[in-house]
Specification:
The structure holds 2 protein chains of 2 kinds. Chain A is mainly alpha-helical. Chain A is 54% helix and 5% strand. The longest helix of chain A has 26 residues. The relative contact order of chain A is 0.17. By secondary structure, chain B is an alpha/beta fold. Chain B has 13 helices and 13 strands. Chain B has a 9-stranded mixed β-sheet, with helices on both faces. In chain B, strands 7-12-9 form a 3-stranded mixed β-sheet. The chains are: A mainly alpha, B alpha/beta. Chains A and B meet through helix 1, strand 1 and helix 2 of A and helix 6, helix 9, helix 10, strand 13 and helix 11 of B. Strand 1 of chain A pairs antiparallel with strand 13 of chain B.
Amino acid sequence: MYNNTGTLAAGAGAGAGGSGLAMTGVAGNLIWIFLASFAILALGMAILRTVPRSQR
Amino acid sequence: MGGRTINSTAGVLERPNVDVPRPARRLGRITALLPAHNEEANLPDALASLRGQTEPPVDIVVIADNCTDDTEQVATELGATVFRTRGNVHKKAGGLNQALDVLLPQMQPDDLILVMDADSLLDPTFLEGARRALEVRPGSRAHRRGIILGGVGGTFLGAEGGGLLGTFQRNEYARYARDVRRLHGKALVLTGTASVFTVKVLREVAAARRAGELPDRSGAGNVYDVHVLTEDNELSLALMHLGYGILAPRECTLVTEVMTTWGDLARQRSRWKRGALENIVDYGFTRVTASYWGRQVLSAVGLLATALYVASLLWGLFTEIHLHPFWLAASLVFCLERVVTVRQRGWRQMLLAAPLVIEMAYDLFLQLVQAQAFMNALLRRERKW
């Protein structure tokens, strides 16, 4: 538990995005890219945790 | 049941009269150690769970640490050996060290020691499963891979109580247990709630600390380093640095208490987080700690992403929010993941998980606590626990 990264909350609600970020220039775009990258990483981890797998 | 007392420089050991034949197996007898600070209410159930094992321990030692209630009396009445700590200011780890100082020299190298919390309940197959895992048999997976286990730990679920907060923790623990099962018992830590070690390995750990081969903040050369916040995590790292593997076998399950207030939960998680961080700092970047460092980095990046995401969402509330089909689809995957991973807890928990936002409140709380723990560790603020 101590090193469990836990739920990646940032990705969990990615369906809605504030349009303001895209309007704030280069910094905003960088932040959007960072958030989108992290959300995709979280998505990949979510898929891995969802697919059936043997348990022992 | 009657008892006897053994005096030592470290403490007082009161043994009941038990004479259990040594099992004719490769590993020796099992002794259970239960550190207890004012645990009179929890002890009966904990001891009953030990007596109810398919392979019960031959001796149960309750380490009564600075108790002001009837812990000792309850333990004695229930037939346990009572070890009373002396002058211990280092809580659980200090009490365990005092008891191990007395017990380890009396035991055989292949004897087994279970260390468990007094507020935990072991499932009946725990000790049998632990022994089976530790006895590396020809043809087993561990034997084929040449792995020697230094210890095996439990996978815990949350006890009842605590209202919605308790439910959140039970769901969290159930998901972690599911992850461990899907990784075939590969665990990050041998949990302090209940883990089993051989005497030989614990002696090796203490010797390695004395020889400077393992970190030892206390400089005392004991099994447990009393100056760390998460002594079980530190001991897990110690075992792995000595070349041993760790495992959480399927049979080794238990139930432990959940925090019933947000304040207690924050203190618990803050201690876990800071303890884990300080443990890997103590060990540095090694082959063993590399993955632990990676998790902490990912965790820190996750905290930043969460903060930015919440900020952007709040910003969007005052401006405009667009719904993107791709991210909507992604959200459905997240919904599915939350529901599937808690399926074993029943349809009520699946319904609770499905809307995402309910459990997200709990996750955001934990993330805030983690962020604070990161800051406290970075700024080396005084530790309070």
